[in-house]
Structure formats: C-alpha cells, structure tokens
Amino acid sequence: MTATTPRPASAEALPAKPAIRLGDLLFSRAALWSGGLILVILAAVAIFLVAQSIPALTADPADFVGQPASFLDYVWPLVFGTLWSAALALVMALPLAIGIALFISHYAPRKLAQALGYLVDLLAAVPSVVYGLWGIGVLAPAIQPVYSWLVDNAGWFPLFAGPVSGTGRTILTAGIVLGVMILPVMTAICREVFLQTPVLHEEAALALGATRWEMIRMAVLPFGRPGIISGAMLGLGRALGETMAVAMVLSPQAIVSFALLQSANPSTIAANIALSFPEAYGVNVNLLIATGLVLFLITLAVNSIARYVVNRRKDFSGAN
C-alpha cells in the first residue's frame, strides 16, 4: 500500500480575496479626500492670516489710524471684551441648557418632549442678525429699568457700578443675547447625551430607592459630564466668534472694564472687524487681519479643548 504524499502548502487553495465594488471604492476615496480637504482649508486660512498679519506686526504704530502704542495695546481690550462677553453668555446659558435638556429627556411627556426638541432645533437656525434686532429693539429697552434698580441698590458691587446706561445697550445685554444664541446648541447636545444614559444604570438607582432627581444626580449627570463640557465649549466657541449681534447691541470703546451696566463697554474682536473694515485702508487692514488671527487662535484652542474632552469620554453600555 503506497503512502499518500502530502500536498505542498503552496498548492492548497487560498481564500479568494473579496472583490472591491466600485461604490465602496468611490465612497472611501471621497471620504479620504474630504477629510484631507478640511486640513488643507484650515492650513490655507492660517497661512493667509499669518502672511497678512506680518505687515501690521512689523509696522510702526504711528502708521496706524488712531496710533495705538503697540499691537498689544490695540488687541488686548478686544481680547478682553471677547472673552468677557462669551463668559457671561456661558454662565447664563449653561445651567438653563442643562435644565431644559433634563426636562426634555426625563420629565416631559413624549409628545411635549418631541415638540420642545423641534423648537430647540429651530432656534438654532435663527440668523444672528435677528437676535441682534431683538436685543436692541426689545431686550435693551425692557431691561434698562432693571439696570437702574441694580445700580441704585447694588451699586457698591463693582460689577453693578454706575453710571447706568440710559439705553440698556451694555455688555450684559450683549451677553444675554449671546446666551440665547448658544442655548439651542448646548441644549441639543446635552439632551442627546442624557438620552444615551444606560437604562440599567437608571433602573438600578431607582431600584435602590432613589428619587428621580437622585437618580439623575447619581446616574445621568456623571454619565453626561463629558458631553456637557464639550457642549459648553462648542457654545463658547460660537459666542467668541459672533459678529452681528454684538456689533448691533454694543456701543463699544477700546477699554477694559468689568462693569456690566455702564454705557462704556469693551468691544469684541469680531465686532470690531465688522465695524472698522469698511473704512480701513493700507496697513490698517493688516491690523484688523492680525486681530482676526488672534481670534482664530482663541477659537482653535477652545475647539481643541472640546475635542480633547470628547476623545477622553469612555465607552459605556448597559452591561457595565
């Protein structure tokens, strides 16, 4: 009886390589090129801002209209106004956004929650110029008596120091308008994060005798903390770059002041560019572009922090 000779390994049938369909190939290439295009556009914007800012950074301050002592003296009040107004908006909008998101996700009936969700999404689509018109036409005149009362009764506190603005167009009014603008974005993000809380975590807390609020405090809010932070950072990024609403509400000056209710208010970088660019010429255009570069770096830092927070979020499931 003859022994069977083993077949060489090379002669064994190898699994056939799956054929790549044309649609998959086109989609993968389009996704790759789209992702690369974003980086190219971002790099092009950065190169443009840096190249156009160099003449302003190297020019003699005497060449500028208004003659700022230095670029730092010119841009610092604008940076302060940008950060101050955005911080006011964030402080006012974040607690309200969390409360609305919790009401929609855990308290409201289903039909009411759906209607409120649609309303929040619609508010995010309102143009900023509409918010600006609302701020100067409705909010400022209505809130001015409140400002007068605050100055009369709490003027000893530095934030509420007088003299009070007679029109109500103050940095606090601008902060309220910005807070209303960023509220829909932050609410939508918080709502989606709260809805992703594992049901087993919520049911376990309720089974241990926790009330609904205790369940939210122990299960929902810890799970949604990274989403809350990222939503707050994204809202802050929008508030930092807002132009028309702030330009329409404020009567800005080149000052650094924490007073909320006075008629003299610091301006923001975006509003200053929008108001000054039509009349700028020569090196003054480069000066405005240099302030735009500062705003670009600030917003880039804010969005990078938000992305870092999102990436640190751990994966949760109903089993853990």
TrEMBL record:
**From its record, what is one biological process in GO terms?**
phosphate ion transport
SUPFAM superfamilies the UniProt entry points to? MetI-like
Q: Which domain of life is it from?
A: Bacteria
- Membrane-spanning ranges: 30-54, 74-104, 116-140, 171-195, 215-236, 281-306
Q: Name one Pfam family in it.
A: BPD_transp_1
Q: Where in the cell is it found?
A: Cell membrane
Give the family this protein belongs to, as stated in its UniProt record: Belongs to the binding-protein-dependent transport system permease family. CysTW subfamily.
* Molecular function GO terms recorded: phosphate transmembrane transporter activity
InterPro entries named among the record's database cross-references: MetI-like, MetI-like_sf, Phosphate_PstC, Phosphate_Transport_Permease
Give the protein's biological function: Part of the binding-protein-dependent transport system for phosphate; probably responsible for the translocation of the substrate across the membrane.
Query: Which GO CC terms are listed, alphabetically?
Result: plasma membrane
Query: Carries keyword Transmembrane?
Result: yes
Protein name, per record:
Phosphate transport system permease protein
Protein's membrane topology:
Multi-pass membrane protein
Q: Which UniProt keywords apply?
A: Cell membrane, Membrane, Phosphate transport, Transmembrane, Transmembrane helix, Transport
**Which parts of the sequence belong to the ABC transmembrane type-1 domain?**
79-306
Q: Which CDD domains match?
A: TM_PBP2
| Keyword DNA repair recorded | no
**Main location, first listed in the record:** membrane
